[in-house]
Write a structure and sequence with these properties.
The chain has 586 residues and is α+β, with helices and mostly antiparallel strands. It is 37% helix and 19% strand.
Amino acid sequence: MSLCKERLTLVQEEKRETVLSESNGDTGKKSRAVCGVCNRMYRDPKILPCLHTFCADCVRQLEPFSERRVNGERRSPEDDTHGHNSGSTILCPECDSEVNLPPSGVDGLTTDHLALDEVFTETLLVDSSVLCDLCSDSNAGKRCEVCCVNLCDFCSQAHRRQKRTSSHSIQSLQELKSQGRLTRPVLCSLHPGQELRLFCEPCDLTVCLECAATFHRDHHCSSAHEVISRHGDRIRDLVVRSLRPRLARLEDSMRCVDTSQEALRARTDTLAGEIRAFARSYANAVEAHCCSLLRSLEDLKLQRRNQLHLQKAQLQQALSDVRGGVDFAERLLTCGSDAEILSAKGVTMRRLMSLVESGYDPHPTTIAHDNASSICFLPQESAGEIEGFPVVGVLHAKTLDPSKCTIQGEGESVERGREGQRDEFTLVCRDSSGEQMGRGGDPVLVSIVHKDRKDCSVEVSVVDNSDGSYGVSYTPAEAGLYSVWVCVKAQHVQGSPFVLNVKRKFRRHRGVFHCCSFCSSGGAKEARCGCTGTMPGGFQGCGHGHKGHPGKPHWSCCGSVVEASECILHNLGSVSPRGHLRTVEL
C-alpha cells in the first residue's frame, strides 16, 4: 500500500512539473521554483557561494573544477568516497564562477527556504487538488505551517487533538492560494517540528530551542526578532549604498553596449553597402577603361595595317621599278654588243640614276620594329580618371627615333660652362613623328670628356622624368674644351656630339667702378687706375678726356668698361696688380 502511495505521489509531482514548465514556456519567464540544471522543481535546494540555487543532487553531480591538496599532496575527485569533499571547487552552472564547497561538502551548503516557499506556492497554484500528506486518501484542504504538511479535514482535526501539535497554526489552502506569496516557518533539521527562532551570535547560526539548550548551551543566543534589524540593516546597507548604484551603472553600461552594438551593426551595414556600391562603380570604371583600351588597340591595329598596306604597295612599286631596271641593265650588258650598249647607255644611265637617287629604300628591321614591337601595354602607368576613379594601364604605340631627339637648354648654356659650377640641360626623346614619347625608361648614355686630356672626364647625373624627358646635370672641375656625347639606344641624338667650352672661375672685381681716378680720389695725384690713363701735372691716374681714358665709366682694378663682367686683371701683364689694389679704397 505504501509503495502505491509513493508511486502516486511521484506521478502527481511529475504532472505538476509538466504543467509548470508549459506555463513558464508560454510566459517566457523562468520560474523561481525550478532548478536550472535538471529543469524540475527544487528538491533540497542549496545556495552556492555565488547566491545561485540548485538541487543538492544536481550540485553533487557537477564535475570538480580543480584538484585539491591534502597534506601537500594532490588528490583527484575519485579519491573522495562521498562525492564533493573538503576543498572541492566547482563551476556554477549559472554564472561559471569558481566556488568552493564547505568542508562538509554539499550538505554543508545553506538551504534555500525561499525556493521551498516558491515550490509550495507553485504547487498550490498548479494543482487543482492536493492529496493529504498523512492519509493520502482524501484531498487536502488545510496546511500546517509548522509541520509543512497538507491535511484533509479528518487529519486536520486529529492534528489539533495531539498534544505535541495542538499549538500549530493551520490555515486553509484556499486562503494560501489567494495570498499569492506564501511564507512558512523554517524548521530545524536536527529536531523535526522545532522552528528556528533563535540566533547564536558566536556560531552565526539560527537554532531552535532544543539546539540552544543542548549544543549552544554556553553561547549567547538571542531571539531572531531582536537581531533581524541589525543583520538585516547590514544587508540592506550593502544593497542600497553599494550594489544598487553599481547595478544601475552596470545596467546603463549594458544599455550603452546594446546601443553601441546596434550603432555598430547599422554603421557596418551602411559601410558594406557603400563598399559594394564603390566596388560596382569601380568595376564599371575598370570595365569602361578596358573597353576603351581595346577600342584604341583595334584602331591602332587598323592604322598600322593600313600603313603596312601602303608600305607594301610602295615596296611593290619600288621592287618592280628596280627589278625592271636591273633586268634591263644586266640583259644589256650580257647580251648587247658594244654598239648596242653605247647606243642605249644614255637612257639606261638616266633611269638607273633616278632609281638610285629617288628610289624608296627603307630598312627591313625599321619596318618590323615600327609596326609590331613598337606597340606595348604599360599596366602600372596612370591613365587618369574615369567617373572619378583613378585607373591604370596605358597603350603605348610610339617608336623612339634617336635622330628626332633634341637637347634643350637656356641660351648657349649647353655649349658653355664655368669651372666648378653646376650646369644642366634636358634631353627630350621623340618618336618618328617628332612627338615627345610621354614615358621614360629609355637607355640614355651621356659622356663628357676633355678634348686635350683623355683622362679628365666629368661625372654626369641623368634623371628620368618619366615623361620622355631626362634631366642631365654635370659639374666640370677644370677649364677647357670638352666633347659631349648624348646617345639613346647606342645612337647619337640630334646635335650630338657637341663641344662644351668650360671657362675658368668667375673673377670678381676688387676695384671701384668709377668715372676717373681724379674724381673718385678727390684729386689725389698718387691714385692710379687699371685703364692706364694719365693726366698732366703729375697725376698718376686717369682723368676725363686725357690720354688713355676709355671715355666711359670703368673698373679701377682692370679698366673693364662693363660693370657686370669678370675682372681681367690677370691679362694686364705690364701693370703691377699691387698698384691697382690701392684704388679699392677710392
